[in-house]
Design a protein that fits this description.
- The chain has 232 residues and is α/β, with parallel strands linked by helices.
- It has three helices and eleven strands; from the N terminus they run βαβββββαβββββα.
- Strands 1, 2, 6, 7, 8, 9, 10 and 11 form an eight-stranded mixed β-sheet that branches. It has a three-stranded mixed β-sheet with strand order 4-3-5, with no helix packed on it.
- A hairpin with a 2-residue loop joins strand 9 (157-170) and strand 10 (173-181).
- It starts with 21 loop residues before the first strand and ends with a helix.
């Protein structure tokens, strides 16, 4: 993976605190350790005022990540894919091709220094983006992430998860973020208990019968961002 080029502002110039976040779409598959290393550097730069906020859209090769609340027994197939310990909140999750991972690096000190509100806003952002494709994403009490209610005819109603959220904040600068399933291999989720929830399934935009590509979702995310995250 080639890491994004360092911004000219990182050399020491202080960025305009009122500037809109930078957006980057990373081509190909980004190795998870490289992504974490880049986020660590960028968060430090944002905190120092030497780089702007960043919305970084990536895809990863197949892997599992363990959040700070992950339980060993929820890793059902430990040898299936690489497993990475990570400092984000949450439990086990899967990342892989066909899933849009959005790393959100915002300075909440100049926006709204409220962690609960931030997670609520991430959920709202996903819900509004999915609505662009007539998908009704929903919150569920006690479950982080976004869910889709489905009726499987003779099998009756069910709920499937379409997006996961896991965040970390350092001195009010956010990183990690969210993952939305566009067209991942859904069987890959079977190696874990996703986010500690075993009684519900996992879905994707394509699994729901929608011919949506990654670029379509990216456009929806960009178009709804400012509706939720007001400029600082």
């Amino acid at each position: 993976m080639t890491l994004p080029a360092m911004d000219a502002t990182a050399a020491g110039a202080v960025t305009d605190p009122a500037a809109a976040p930078e957006w980057r779409v990373e081509p190909g598959l980004t190795a998870y350790p490289d992504a974490v290393a880049f986020m660590e550097r960028r968060v430090a730069e944002i905190r120092a005022g030497s780089a702007p906020e960043l919305i970084w859209l990536v895809e990863h090769p197949p892997l599992y990540t363990a959040g700070t609340s992950a339980r060993r027994e929820d890793l059902l197939q430990p040898d299936r894919f690489p497993v990475f310990e990570t400092g984000r909140g949450g439990e086990f999750t899967y990342h892989g091709p066909g899933q849009r991972v959005v790393y959100v690096m915002l300075d909440l000190k100049r926006r709204n220094p409220d962690l609960r509100r931030y997670v609520h806003d991430l959920e709202e952002w996903i819900i509004r983006s999915l609505a662009q494709f007539s998908v009704a994403g929903e919150r569920r009490e006690g479950r982080v992430g976004i869910w889709v209610a489905r009726n499987e005819g003779a099998l009756g109603p069910r709920e499937d998860k379409i997006a996961a959220i896991g965040v970390r904040i350092r001195r009010w600068v956010t990183y990690h973020g969210l993952a939305i399933n566009v067209e991942p291999e859904l069987d890959h989720f079977s190696g874990i208990v996703p986010c500690g929830v075993s009684e519900h399934g996992v879905t994707s935009l394509v699994d729901l019968g929608l011919p949506v590509g990654m670029a379509d979702l990216d456009a929806a995310l960009r178009g709804t961002f400012d509706e939720v995250f007001k400029p600082g």
